[in-house]
Write a sequence for this structure.
């Protein structure tokens, strides 16, 4: 049942990614200058999809394996931390969102999603957490190996 849910989630994420790429291609063709924004947003979306997929594998192996500390587990956490760092960099290099004109009761309003670049503190904390947890798991692996050698 869980694999069926993951396959549906994969299909939905794939459709979302295809939709974002379609918008980026259309903006590039129109020459509106928003294509670069959509390309960066598509890459960011791909990272947002990859991080939970890595963590699902991490928790699945953590629950099933009698020896939870392993090199693969540490690598998964390290990769998740690096992906979050890449997401932070993408947020910094992302061009501003294209302005859209929205009419409200006949009055045109100009809307832009954000002004300027910023670093999300939540992402920084998340990256540091994953990287530190990776080191803890690597240390746990070394302790586990030492205790196995003693016995």
């Amino acid at each position: 049942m869980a694999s069926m849910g993951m396959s549906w989630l994969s299909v939905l994420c794939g459709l979302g990614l295809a939709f974002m790429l379609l918008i980026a291609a259309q903006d590039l063709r129109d020459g509106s200058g928003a294509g670069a924004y959509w390309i960066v947003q598509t890459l960011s979306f791909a990272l947002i999809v990859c991080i939970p997929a890595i963590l699902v594998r991490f928790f699945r192996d953590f629950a099933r394996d009698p020896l939870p500390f392993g090199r693969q587990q540490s690598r998964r956490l390290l990769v998740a931390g690096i992906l979050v760092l890449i997401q932070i960099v993408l947020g910094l290099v992302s061009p501003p969102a294209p302005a859209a004109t929205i009419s409200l009761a006949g009055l045109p309003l100009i809307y832009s999603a954000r002004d300027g670049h910023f670093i999300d503190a939540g992402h920084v904390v998340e990256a540091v957490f994953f990287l530190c947890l990776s080191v803890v798991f690597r240390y746990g692996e070394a302790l586990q190996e030492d205790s196995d050698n003693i016995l």
